[in-house]
Protein backbone atom coordinates (compact mmCIF):
# COMPACT_ATOMS: atom_id res chain seq x y z
CA UNK A 1 0.00 0.00 0.00
CA UNK A 2 2.79 2.43 0.90
CA UNK A 3 4.67 1.51 -2.25
CA UNK A 4 1.57 2.27 -4.32
CA UNK A 5 1.14 5.65 -2.63
CA UNK A 6 4.79 6.55 -3.15
CA UNK A 7 4.74 5.35 -6.76
CA UNK A 8 1.70 7.50 -7.55
CA UNK A 9 3.12 10.51 -5.68
CA UNK A 10 0.13 10.52 -3.36
CA UNK A 11 0.34 12.40 -0.10
CA UNK A 12 1.22 9.84 2.57
CA UNK A 13 -0.33 10.27 5.99
CA UNK A 14 1.44 9.29 9.17
CA UNK A 15 1.86 5.54 9.52
CA UNK A 16 3.09 2.90 11.92
CA UNK A 17 3.62 -0.60 10.59
CA UNK A 18 4.15 -3.54 12.91
CA UNK A 19 5.13 -7.09 12.09
CA UNK A 20 6.42 -10.19 13.82
CA UNK A 21 10.19 -10.66 13.29
CA UNK A 22 11.55 -13.80 11.64
CA UNK A 23 13.91 -14.64 14.55
CA UNK A 24 15.90 -17.44 12.98
CA UNK A 25 13.79 -18.26 9.91
CA UNK A 26 16.34 -18.34 7.09
CA UNK A 27 14.35 -20.00 4.32
CA UNK A 28 15.32 -18.43 1.02
CA UNK A 29 11.83 -17.29 -0.03
CA UNK A 30 11.24 -15.72 3.40
CA UNK A 31 14.57 -13.87 3.24
CA UNK A 32 13.79 -12.69 -0.31
CA UNK A 33 10.48 -11.27 0.89
CA UNK A 34 12.21 -9.55 3.81
CA UNK A 35 14.73 -7.90 1.48
CA UNK A 36 11.92 -6.78 -0.82
CA UNK A 37 10.01 -5.20 2.08
CA UNK A 38 13.16 -3.42 3.27
CA UNK A 39 13.71 -2.03 -0.23
CA UNK A 40 10.20 -0.54 -0.13
CA UNK A 41 10.00 0.85 3.40
CA UNK A 42 13.49 0.73 4.85
CA UNK A 43 14.88 -0.86 7.98
CA UNK A 44 12.68 -1.55 10.98
CA UNK A 45 13.30 -1.11 14.69
CA UNK A 46 12.97 -4.28 16.76
CA UNK A 47 11.01 -3.66 19.97
CA UNK A 48 10.28 -6.25 22.67
CA UNK A 49 7.34 -5.42 24.95
CA UNK A 50 9.00 -7.07 27.95
CA UNK A 51 11.57 -4.28 27.87
CA UNK A 52 8.85 -1.69 28.55
CA UNK A 53 6.94 -3.47 31.30
CA UNK A 54 5.06 -6.43 29.81
CA UNK A 55 5.83 -9.70 31.55
CA UNK A 56 6.20 -11.74 28.37
CA UNK A 57 8.33 -11.41 25.28
CA UNK A 58 6.47 -9.85 22.40
CA UNK A 59 9.11 -8.87 19.82
CA UNK A 60 7.82 -6.77 16.94
CA UNK A 61 9.32 -4.92 14.01
CA UNK A 62 8.18 -1.30 13.68
CA UNK A 63 8.37 1.03 10.72
CA UNK A 64 7.01 4.56 10.91
CA UNK A 65 7.31 7.97 9.39
CA UNK A 66 6.44 9.90 12.56
CA UNK A 67 10.06 10.24 13.65
CA UNK A 68 13.42 9.02 12.43
CA UNK A 69 14.19 5.35 12.99
CA UNK A 70 17.26 6.19 15.03
CA UNK A 71 15.27 8.39 17.44
CA UNK A 72 12.83 5.54 18.14
CA UNK A 73 15.68 3.08 18.64
CA UNK A 74 17.53 5.37 21.04
CA UNK A 75 14.36 6.15 23.02
CA UNK A 76 13.66 2.42 23.38
CA UNK A 77 17.21 1.73 24.55
CA UNK A 78 17.12 4.33 27.33
CA UNK A 79 13.87 3.09 28.89
CA UNK A 80 14.94 1.92 32.34
CA UNK A 81 14.34 -1.78 32.88
CA UNK A 82 12.67 -2.64 36.15
CA UNK A 83 14.11 -5.45 38.22
CA UNK A 84 10.77 -5.72 40.05
CA UNK A 85 8.79 -7.32 37.23
CA UNK A 86 8.11 -10.87 38.39
CA UNK A 87 5.94 -13.14 36.25
CA UNK A 88 4.61 -15.01 39.31
CA UNK A 89 3.02 -11.77 40.55
CA UNK A 90 0.49 -11.78 37.72
CA UNK A 91 -0.35 -15.49 37.63
CA UNK A 92 -3.35 -17.13 39.28
CA UNK A 93 -2.75 -18.30 42.83
CA UNK A 94 -2.29 -21.97 41.78
CA UNK A 95 0.13 -21.23 38.96
CA UNK A 96 3.89 -20.72 38.97
CA UNK A 97 6.27 -19.72 36.22
CA UNK A 98 8.55 -22.34 34.75
CA UNK A 99 12.22 -22.53 35.60
CA UNK A 100 14.35 -20.69 33.04
CA UNK A 101 16.11 -23.33 30.93
CA UNK A 102 17.59 -21.11 28.23
CA UNK A 103 18.92 -17.65 28.97
CA UNK A 104 17.43 -14.87 26.84
CA UNK A 105 19.64 -13.68 23.99
CA UNK A 106 19.58 -10.67 21.78
CA UNK A 107 17.65 -9.55 19.78
CA UNK A 108 14.89 -10.04 22.37
CA UNK A 109 15.20 -8.22 25.68
CA UNK A 110 17.43 -10.04 28.15
CA UNK A 111 15.29 -10.21 31.28
CA UNK A 112 15.78 -13.54 32.98
Overview of this structure, please?
This protein is of the alpha+beta class. It has one domain. It is 27% helix and 12% strand. The chain has 3 helices and 3 strands; from the N terminus they run αβαββα. It has a 3-stranded antiparallel beta sheet, covered by helices on one side. The N and C termini lie far apart (39 Å).
Summarize the helices and strands and which ones pair or pack:
Blueprint: H1 2-7, E1 16-19, H2 28-41, E2 45-48, E3 59-64, H3 69-78
Antiparallel strand pairs: 1-3, 2-3
Please tally the β strands and state the result: 3
As a percent range, the share of helical residues equals: 25-40%
Instruction: Categorize the overall geometry.
Output: elongated
Class from secondary-structure proportions: alpha+beta
Count of DSSP H/I helices: 3
Main β sheet profile:
3 strands, antiparallel
- Beta strand %: 5-15%
Radius of gyration based on Cα positions: 18 Å
Q: Roughly what is the average pLDDT, rounded to an integer? A: 81
| Tally of distinct domains | 1
